[in-house]
Amino acid sequence: MKAANPLSIAIIVGRALVALLFILAGLAKALGPQPFLEHMAAFGVPSVLLPAVIVLEIGAGIAVLIGWRLREAAGALAGFCLLAAVIFHHDFANKAERTLFFKDLAIAGGLLAMAAAAEAGRRRVVPAASRT
């Protein structure tokens, strides 16, 4: 029996940890939307966007988890994190908000790196017909 590749394990665990953040956030919004709707309203974000956010967080989160369309899913979640940082966490005088802003930027950075790695891996694949 072949030993598991530590790099493969790290990739899977890393994707799972990032995906869990979004899947659980989406489920929380779906199961109890009122506090999220109130928070959105406080920042002038239309409530009609909440279903799209839920679908994005759960759908792209699952895609990241299973590695399906990883470039697109990670890229979409990165954009979402950047928007969340700019819209909701721009009060830099508040230490907690400043921390949340940079946390969102850091998550977006990790997702962008994940998307870029997925694209790089896709480009390295050589079709079987062209191998000699």
Describe this protein's structure:
By secondary structure, the chain is mainly α. It has one domain. The chain has helices spanning 6-31, 34-42, 50-66, 70-88, 95-124. The model has no long low-confidence stretch (mean pLDDT 93).
Set down the secondary structure blueprint:
Elements: H1 6-31, H2 34-42, H3 50-66, H4 70-88, H5 95-124
> How many individual domains?
1
Oligomer designation: single chain
Q: In which range does the helix fraction lie?
A: over 70%
Major sheet description: none
Which features characterize this protein?
single chain, about 130 residues, mainly alpha, 5 helices, elongated
Short recap of the structure:
With 132 residues, the protein is mostly helical.
